[in-house]
């Protein structure tokens, strides 16, 4: 089992177990039919997180007669700097438990806690859109911003306020171009992404992480690149579609080109792509309520979807605060922003792989 995860202490839940490799196809079938599933529940992520980050992935699930009835994917996050914990799903906005019957949610949690105790972790972090575990400590400060899409991008443009339409059209007037594609555009995207993450003071993921996602989802993982009049990449978005919803987990733009409306032009082209591909919902990603990014997404008409991040905390300890707003990280962020991008591209991935 991944990372030495064993189930000796878990035997008193006869139908709930850590799934074996042979049971992953049944898990993926269950995910494919569950209305609350996300792409991050699929078993392909075991290869991605193990190859990109060296982390172990598993599923605690309920299996009867070869059928999966519920489960939760987990990644074991362990580092000297950021601690030892289990998450579902780290690196992304969604994960958490999926069940056909809500009565299965508690046995799955109990089995997951037993696994956490086996591993000696400091806490569990389970990312949900539903309040599956009201008895657990929970954070509700984050929301996703979802925009219902019309059948055509023409209709969508008409729905925008005049100021927003004007900002998008300024990008065209300023000679900005756009490219849509897959892994062949990764170098362009990553150049912009790494620069922007340095400016934010955040360690950047290794390029291999995004390469693996593009390889795993060749039809639904796409890159949108905005270029200036000299064809230089100045903004980029990473899109991942699943069923009728497409998410933009990562987007970046070079600040010195923002006066050209490059960021607005990027998001418009991402929305246009989503409409043209027949998606019904555009997911702008996670924000804190009332933040500047929240307001940016709201101007496009996106509506908030509440997050519930549940925690199991042994010994009644405080909920962890591993986010840029934590005062103890402010000095590190300030120092990081002063480093050359070439340095952050080398050092950043060794740190980012431990950040959930």
User: SSE order, as H and E?
Assistant: EHHEEEEHEEEHHEHHEEEHEHEEHH
Strand content: 25-35%
* CATH structural fold name of the largest domain: Aminopeptidase
Gyration radius, rounded: 21 Å
Tell me, what is the CATH class of the largest domain? Alpha Beta
Overall average residue pLDDT: 92
| Low-confidence region ranges | 1-13
Please, what is the CATH homologous superfamily of the largest domain?
Gcn5-related N-acetyltransferase (GNAT)
Apparent shape: globular
Total helical segments: 11
In terms of structural class, how would the helical and strand content be classed? Answer: alpha+beta
Terminus-to-terminus distance: 22 Å
Query: What does the main sheet amount to?
Result: 8 strands, mixed
Task: Tell me the domain tally.
Answer: 2
Strand tally is 15
Helix residue percentage = 25-40%
CATH architecture of the largest domain: 3-Layer(aba) Sandwich
Task: Explain what you see.
This protein is α+β, with helices and mostly antiparallel strands and 356 residues long. The strands form two sheets. Strands 1, 2, 3, 4, 5, 6, 7 and 15 form an eight-stranded mixed sheet that branches. It contains eleven helices and 15 strands. Mean pLDDT is 92; it is low at 1-13. 33% of the residues lie in helices and 27% in strands. Helix 2 runs antiparallel to helix 7 (207-216) and helix 5 packs across helix 8. It folds into two domains: 2-139 and 308-320, Aminopeptidase, CATH 3.40.630.30; 143-306, 3-Layer(aba) Sandwich (Aminopeptidase), CATH 3.40.630.30. 40% of the residues are buried.
């Amino acid at each position: 089992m991944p990372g030495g995860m064993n189930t000796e202490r878990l035997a008193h839940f006869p139908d709930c177990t850590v799934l074996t490799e042979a049971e992953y196809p049944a898990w993926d079938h269950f995910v494919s039919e569950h209305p609350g599933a996300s792409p991050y529940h699929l078993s392909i992520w075991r290869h991605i997180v193990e190859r990109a980050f060296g982390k172990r992935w598993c599923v605690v699930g309920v299996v009867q007669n070869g059928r999966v009835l519920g489960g939760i994917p987990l990644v074991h996050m362990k580092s000297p700097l950021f601690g030892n914990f289990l998450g579902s799903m780290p690196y992304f906005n969604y994960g958490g438990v999926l069940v056909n019957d809500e009565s299965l949610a508690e046995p799955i949690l109990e089995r997951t806690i037993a696994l956490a105790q086996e591993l000696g972790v400091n806490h569990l972090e389970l990312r949900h859109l539903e309040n599956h575990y009201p008895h657990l400590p929970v954070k509700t400060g984050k929301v996703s911003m979802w925009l219902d899409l019309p059948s055509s991008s023409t209709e969508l443009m008409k729905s925008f306020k005049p100021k927003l339409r004007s900002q998008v059209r300024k990008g065209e007037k300023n000679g900005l171009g756009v490219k849509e594609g897959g892994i062949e555009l990764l170098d362009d995207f990553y150049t912009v992404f790494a620069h922007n993450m340095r400016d934010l003071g955040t360690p950047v993921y290794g390029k291999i992480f995004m390469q693996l996602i593009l390889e795993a989802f060749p039809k639904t993982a796409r890159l949108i690149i905005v270029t200036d009049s000299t064809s230089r990449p100045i903004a980029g978005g990473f899109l991942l579609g699943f069923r009728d919803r497409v998410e933009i987990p990562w987007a970046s733009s070079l600040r010195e080109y923002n006066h050209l409306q490059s960021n607005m032009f990027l998001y418009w082209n991402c929305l246009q792509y989503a409409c043209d591909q027949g998606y019904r919902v555009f997911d702008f990603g996670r924000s804190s309520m009332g933040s500047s990014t929240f307001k940016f997404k709201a101007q496009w008409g996106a509506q908030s979807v509440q997050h519930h991040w549940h925690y199991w905390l042994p010994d009644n300890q405080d909920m962890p605060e591993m986010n840029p707003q934590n005062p103890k990280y402010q000095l590190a962020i300030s120092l990081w922003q002063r480093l050359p991008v070439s340095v952050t591209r080398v050092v950043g991935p060794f740190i980012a792989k431990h950040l959930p």
